[in-house]
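Lecture 7 notes: from sequence to structure.
We start with the chain below.
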Amino acid sequence: MFTHDEVWRGIDRLARHNGLTASGLARRAGLDPTTFNPSKRITKENRPRWPSTESLAKILTATGTPFNAFVAMMSDETGAAIEPPSQRMRCIGLEQAGRPALFDEAGFPIGAEWDEIEFPNLDDRHAYALEVRGDEMAPIYRDGDLLIVSPGASIRRHDRVLLKPRDGEPVAGHLVRRTAQRLELAPFAQGQETKRFAIGEVTWLARIVWASQ
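Predicted structure tokens for the same chain:
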């Protein structure tokens, strides 16, 4: 028999194992993003609410996870072996990254508007996660993928980066060219052409060091 806590523990670990939040896992499986929210795990009558067998089947299919592997993720005894050391990391939707007061002038995350997730330890306390929502970046990135950004990492040509113009929303893409006068960026979003920015137009540039796919 599985307990209520064990089943939800397995879902949370499955999400982290695939570099996703619980809502990202739900989206990946074609479910409502709130399906696995902590608030949905207990009813208003303070009774445990169980995930449906259909939702479990969908997340296992979407992540290619065998049922016996999911059972192992539910177990306290095997948790340490399954999960690598992790750190709490700030996380927000990519489309929200243009909000004021989320970053300082150097591109480091600040403020209290961020959510937090557990993520395998990158040994980078300034790294943060941006969750892709929607299919504008398909097929490079899909709905629910996480982009891990390190504002302190060195950047070279062809790296995947996040660029914040002085006037405009952050743009994610490949760094095509970088000179003392300008930057050229090829956005991930479908149908967008290479963008050119004068150095003086750029507030900050940060490297995307990892992405779940």
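Points to note: Strands lie at 86-93, 115-120, 128-131, 146-150, 160-165, 171-178, 182-187, 195-198, 202-211. The chain has five helices and nine strands.
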